[in-house]
Amino acid sequence: MRFSRLAHSLISTVSEAVSSVLNKFSGQPATYDKKQLYKMGRTLGAGTYGIVREADGPTGKVAVKIILKKNVKGNERMVYDELELLQRLHHPHIIRFVDWFESRDKYYIVTQLATGGELFDRICEYGKFTEKDASRVIREVLGAVDYLHQNNIVHRDLKPENLLYLTNEPDSSLVLADFGIAKMLEANEMLTTMAGSFGYAAPEVMLKRGHGKPVDMWSLGVITYTLLCGYSPFRSESLPELVEECQSGRIIFHDRYWKEVSKDAKLFIGLLLQPDPDNRPTSGAALKHSWLKGDTATDYDILPEIKSYIARARLRRGVEMVKLKNRIEALKMQEDDDTSDLPLDSVTAAVHSSGAKPPPPRLSRAARSAIFREVVLAKVREMKEQEAQEKVERDISAAAAGRH
Q1: Would you identify the CATH topology of the domain 119-305?
Q2: Where is the composition biased (Basic and acidic residues) (predicted)?
Q3: Mean pLDDT, to the nearest integer, of 160-180?
Q4: Distance between CA 217 and CA 209 in Å, rounded?
Q5: In this structure, are residues 176 and 111 in contact, taking their beta carbons and an 8 Å threshold?
Q6: Extents of the domains making up the chain
Q7: What DSSP assignment string belongs to 332-383?
Q8: pLDDT in tens, 251-285
Q9: What is the DSSP letter of 113?
Q10: Strand pairing partners for 66?
């Protein structure tokens, strides 16, 4: 038996050595042999730098983020920063790092797979979801944020889409995902690059001012508001108007949707949505707020409002499906070596990513017109936002020049 174990160990060592030599001769990095351990499955999403796919690995199903090296040329540090950061994180409400490897033209980051769905989609499956339930959810998310902040990490992209349930079980953990733009802060370091998602980014981020941990508290305030009423506290569609709306400090709680929600919940939101980052509570201080203890939260059922939010979001997802299909096609055109990492059927991939059911074979003329109109409007908004951002940057530069 002992000889058998020694023989197996020797064979394994020789096999790894041979694989490493073959990789070297083929121009592949030393870690490339790990790729054979993962069988790629459906596409879960696509972003600026690559895609995320489900895969079967040695430990079961996982998520594999595939990043094209061409897309991060000159910014490779960004990938290594994400890897270093993920390997440091160990928290029940944060997605778990599993492994990483690379090929000639791609990086692969393997993480725990969350199959229970996004926060808002999952809530819609419940028969009832109360303010007390919302308080518990926010407490879990804030617990994860507090862990990050204690370790001098700022997430910078908190939004409902990055809050996922690990499984379909009723008692499944909610986890925070997507650390692609998260940053580890040095002592007293302030970040200045634009980061985050439209509608959830703090005003100092949109103005490209120095920012840090308080941006996560702002985003959590937007999430809490939206979770309790089914719409965002800020509804401007252009960047200058959104900045102005956020900086005004006026948070409106419309009586029709908020009259049954506790005063404590509104006070909690007001504390987080302070235009001046210095006036926002730290994650540790926010965790001590009375609303998060659940004692002051009501049993008011907010599920109807959330379902209305999801109904509006599904039309947006139809638009995102089209964008995602185009994104995957563009990424496939950039491939150098093994093309099996990117899906052959980008339409199916887009459907999987959106969480929507595949569309029927034939759409009515009205439906086709609606989708076309939304795609066109989305493109127009995108162009307007870009123009507005350029104007804001010019105004800021002019103001800075005037002060000097």
Answers
A1: Transferase(Phosphotransferase); domain 1 (1.10.510)
A2: 385-396
A3: 89
A4: 16
A5: no
A6: 119-305, 362-404
A7: HHT--S-GGGS-S-HHHHHHHHHTPPPPPSS--HHHHHHHHHHHHHHHHHHH
A8: 999 888 899 999 999 999 999 999 999 999 999 99
A9: -
A10: 51, 108
Question: Which amino acids are annotated catalytic?
Answer: 157
Provide the 8-state DSSP code for 94: B
Of the given ranges (40-54, 253-267, 286-300, 308-322), which has the lowest mean pLDDT? 308-322
For residue 397, give the 3-state DSSP assignment: helix
Tell whether 69 is in a known binding site: yes
- The CA distance from 97 to 182, in Å, is 15
Q: Is 284 exposed, middle or buried (0-12, 13-18, 19+ CB in 10 A)?
A: exposed
Residues 6+ apart with CB under 8 A from 377: none
Mean pLDDT confidence for 185-212: 83
Q: Strand pairing partners for 109?
A: 65, 100
Distances (CA, A) of 38 to 33, 79, 328, 348, 398: 10, 20, 21, 21, 53
Q: Band of the pLDDT at 388, cuts 50, 70, 90?
A: low
